[in-house]
Specification:
Two copies of one chain form a homodimer. Chain A is built from 15 helices and eleven strands. In chain A, strands 7-6-8-5-9-11 form a six-stranded mixed β-sheet, with no helix packed on it. In chain A, strands 2-1-3-10-4 form a five-stranded mixed β-sheet, with helices on both faces. Helix content of chain A is 49%, strand content 13%.
């Protein structure tokens, strides 16, 4: 079945032939599913150009196919192929597709608590996020929030700490941010807007055209590897770090709960393992690709600079106010935020010792060449 | 079959009934193996008391069993159950068992290059190690070195940065190290000995008895979670960080190559995914358990201190000399070391920006409570 046929079936019936095994499985006893193949669709919130993030879903599905000798087979669809990227969660939720691969902060309009499972300003780093998910109660909470939308949750990817964006001039104080029209990802705008930035939401492919027309005066995307491909260095020469709003952004794989629940145990175990492997693989890919792209950007005349302390401090203060405010209105957000922050704080108390002193020594010895 | 029977079979024939599926598989066409169950033994280099490290092998094997619905089933044996911990690699190499789970620096007497795949002084941190393995050519090199011993290599676990050990008094300069009789893990002794330390090798269970008898005057083991269980804080109150010899120690799963090669593709894919999931899970477990144990140790009167710069600098200098010396005699070590250090340096050049500045800001805001 071609992609076109597949799309037409999906458009016609909510789920086409490719989804029928899933539908049959959820309508029959689990035993029937055990004997049979499972075919399903994964709608990605991302374009193929983000090969590392988009690729996380493909990695997971390739591994699932390999492990099951083709018995379990999920097809990944890029943003716009079946539904627009920001509708990926809806598509899995209502059964248009069986699974979504997305960053849950894209969907905070449904519930702010969702953002906690991707990244919120001053959240944990990648290791802290992964540890919270698997050994700190994070994934149980993610499932509690996702169940509201008929979804099940698996962590499936992490970008690590991201860069703080591209600017015409170096930002020397919080006053330099005022009046910027900056392309931003969703939830971070809640903190950057009170700092005087006008947030603009644009998908990846639309950022450069908007910058060329002068519709935005600054932007943030991911990090060196992804940013270089989109060519931002041609218009902006000052590259900030760190993105205090993306300290360790997590991607999520969210199957439709009604479809998922009756699936056989071996399928569930493989799916879970594939998502864990893909998480590790995405972070490793970024850790391998970002340094090369960073060097390349610097050769092209890009100057990196650290966001000044007054920017960080103001953002931190606004974030704390924001979380208190949302918590007072949304008990589920309060519950998730309380779990995350308690875990995060213990994490940093521990990482402050061996991890950070080891890495700062190594950076001074080996990482200070640029 | 009981563990005793299993052991007897293994002693008698090199591989018992439990290994027969593997033997049959390697003697027959791969297609025959596809239809059949695979039963095998994993010899761990670790005692069960190291539940996080030892547990990494069990996590991987539990996941394999779950994914294959019991078709593929590896039984993990603690150190001493079939062979002593330090003989784990030999056991997989000569077919006494099918697979070993170990830290490859235990076996540097076979080839110093093996140590690079666990940890050497001033190696990469956990993320750097994982990225090097999967996207920097590290695992290809590990397979090249392991093939010399009839083994295949999979990363299967990482402890993160470890603590620098337990001392009677705080170490204030490199002179304070001179004359210490210190329990140490293998390869690190090559650097610590020239600093005036007398290295003593002891398995976990023998450390406290030796300390009580005054046979050692300092020791290092892993980190807060493992160290607290062994009770070192009862005799030593000064706890150093970081272990510059264990910045991100990796565990390895090494199947016997002759047994592994003819196994079916789905088994291989599941085994690989299980090891990747176990790697992530081990690091997450340590990241969740270490902070709690650290707080508990501090309540018990333990004082943490950072190893002084002159200790780090002397160790760094000695390490560089050591690596140059080994490289001049061992081309395989030179090849592996060159690959690792190039990758590590780029890693730190990149992590110096977003990762380290984000984490140092968060540590100041949230991690400085102790």
């Amino acid at each position: 079945m071609s992609n076109n046929e597949r799309r037409n079936f999906l458009k016609m019936g909510g789920a086409g032939l490719v989804g029928m095994a899933g539908i049959l499985a959820s309508g029959q006893a689990p035993a029937a599913a055990t004997s049979g193949k499972i075919r399903f669709d994964v709608v990605s919130a991302f374009p193929k150009t983000l090969d590392t993030i988009y690729g996380g879903a493909e990695d997971a599905m390739n591994l699932l196919r390999e492990m099951s000798d083709g018995k379990y087979d999920g097809t990944v669809h890029a943003a716009g192929e079946i539904v627009p990227g920001l509708k990926a969660l809806d598509a899995a939720s209502d059964g248009t597709a069986q699974v979504a691969h997305t960053a849950l902060y894209y969907h905070f309009d449904k519930d702010d608590a969702l953002a906690e499972f991707a990244s919120i300003p001053f959240g944990p780093d990648a290791r802290g996020m992964i540890a919270w998910m698997h050994h700190g109660g994070g994934n149980e909470l993610a499932n509690e929030v996702c169940a509201k939308f008929n979804l099940v949750h698996f962590a499936c990817g992490n970008t690590g700490a991201q860069m703080g964006g591209w600017f015409k001039d170096e930002i020397r104080s919080k006053d330099d941010l005022k009046g910027l029209k900056m392309r931003l990802g969703g939830f971070a705008g809640k903190v950057l807007q009170p700092m005087g930035i006008q947030p603009v939401t644009l998908p990846g492919g639309d950022i450069m055209p908007a910058a060329e027309k002068g519709l935005i005066s600054a932007l943030e995307w991911v990090g060196p590897y992804d940013d270089e491909k989109l060519g931002f260095y041609k218009l902006f020469k000052n590259y900030a770090y760190p993105a205090f709003w993306e300290g360790g952004t997590q991607l999520s794989m969210t199957p439709n709960k009604k479809w998922w629940d009756p699936q056989p145990a071996d399928f569930k175990a493989m799916f879970k393992a594939a998502c864990m492997a893909a998480t590790q693989n995405m972070l490793a890919k970024y850790d391998a690709k970002n340094p090369i792209a960073l060097s390349s950007l610097m050769v092209k005349g890009v100057k990196v600079f650290r966001l000044p302390k007054d920017v960080m401090d103001q953002a931190y203060y606004i974030s704390e106010q924001l979380y208190a405010d949302i918590s007072s209105k949304n008990p589920l957000f309060a519950k998730v935020h309380n779990s995350m922050t308690k875990f995060r704080d213990k994490h940093y108390q521990w990482h402050r010792l061996a991890e950070q002193t080891y890495n700062s020594y190594m950076t001074n010895q080996r990482g200070n060449r640029i």
